[in-house]
Amino acid sequence: MANPNPKTKQLELGRGKRRKLNNKTVAMRMSDNTREKLEEIALQYGCFYDEKPWIAGLLAKIGEGELLIVPAPPTPHVSR
Q1: What pLDDT score does 22 carry?
Q2: In angstroms, how far apart are the furthest CA atoms of the chain?
Q3: pTM for the complete prediction?
Q4: The CA-based dihedral angle spanning residues 29, 32, 34, 39, taken in that order and rounded to the nearest 10 degrees
Q5: How far is CA 63 from CA 40, 45, 60, 71, 79, in A?
Q6: C-alpha angle with apex 31: 27 to 55, nearest 5 degrees?
Q7: Contact of 58 with 48, CB cutoff 8 Å
Q8: 19, 17, 50, 49: which is closest to 8 by C-alpha?
Q9: How many whole angstroms separate alpha carbon 45 and alpha carbon 21?
Q10: C-alpha to C-alpha distance for 59 and 40, rounded to whole angstroms
Q11: SS (H, E, C) the chain
């Protein structure tokens, strides 16, 4: 049942809504560990959306050339 007395004052002020970015959606699967690491990097480079770390913002900065990807040195292979 709908709320007979909705409080819309906060919505009129723009609260409770995320800003619209009008971007295309890209879905990807990754482990929780990878997601956490990417969110840490996003924090380091100021990529936030709604005050949360924003992986898509990090990827956008890479795609726009604001951040440069430099390969890490190869790790030594240890045979068992």
Answers
A1: 80
A2: 69
A3: 0.63
A4: 100
A5: 18, 14, 5, 16, 37
A6: 50
A7: no
A8: 17
A9: 19
A10: 13
A11: CCCCCCCCHHHHCCCCCCCCCCCCCCCCCCCHHHHHHHHHHHHHCCCEECCEECHHHHHHHHHCCCCCCCCCCCCCCCCC
Q: pLDDT, tens digit, for every residue of 15-36? A: 666 667 787 888 999 999 999 9
* Structure tokens, 47: 């990529």
Distances (CA, A) of 4 to 13, 15, 19, 53: 21, 21, 27, 37
Q: Which of 39, 46, 48 is nearest to 67 (CA)?
A: 46
Please answer whether residues 26 and 34 qualify as being in contact, where contact means their C-beta atoms are separated by less than 8 angstroms.
no
Do the Cβ atoms of 47 and 58 come closer than 8 Å? Answer: yes
Residue 42 burial by Cβ neighbours in a 10 Å radius (0-12, 13-18, 19+): buried
